[in-house]
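Marked as duplicate of an earlier ticket. Keeping the data here for the record.
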Amino acid sequence: MNKATRERNALPKSFVTLTLLALLSGCAKTPEPAPIAIGKLCESWRHKTIKKADKLTEESAAMIEGDNKARVEWQCEYGENRAKG
């Protein structure tokens, strides 16, 4: 088989391969997220504390405080490593 014939045959093979990949990837399903027990979440995502001896920038302190406040949205008790209630 000469070079021109190989190049002519390569295009349809590539097209078929790409088409099959596109069709197969469209059929893949994303698994449902696993449920998380709120109590376990609050124990593992611990409240961060800052001591007077810590040397932080305002930005770092704000990030830590933002993380602590975000825990409340996930039903964690503010300042504690447990769920609300």
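See parent ticket for discussion. The helical segments are 3-27, 38-44, 58-73.
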